[in-house]
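Q: I'm writing up a methods section and want to include an example of the input and output format. Could you take the sequence below and give the corresponding predicted structure tokens, formatted cleanly so I can copy it straight into the document?
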Amino acid sequence: MSDCAIGNAVVVRSLTNEQLESFIPLPCDHESVPLKKLIGGYDCPECKDETYFLSFCHNTVEQESCTWHCSICGTCRDWREWHCDQCNRCTYGLSLPCARCGS
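A: Here is the clean output for your methods example:
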């Protein structure tokens, strides 16, 4: 399961078989796949090394290379964000100091 699915395990467990079997289009538009395949991450055969997952936080399909799930904050974040251990919040800018506490 993706980090987002693990963080939203209650939601994942509540999905019906009908929901799990419903087809969801990938952002690349190459194909649609059953929701159940997106819970663990799905490698699009035409995208060459691109994995997609269902973000329960954003309620959309996300590219693993562009989005990650912060297990501490409990939400999906942009790839350019990082979790600051000093103030315990996510902040923007991988090469920048924390926007909240400056560390």
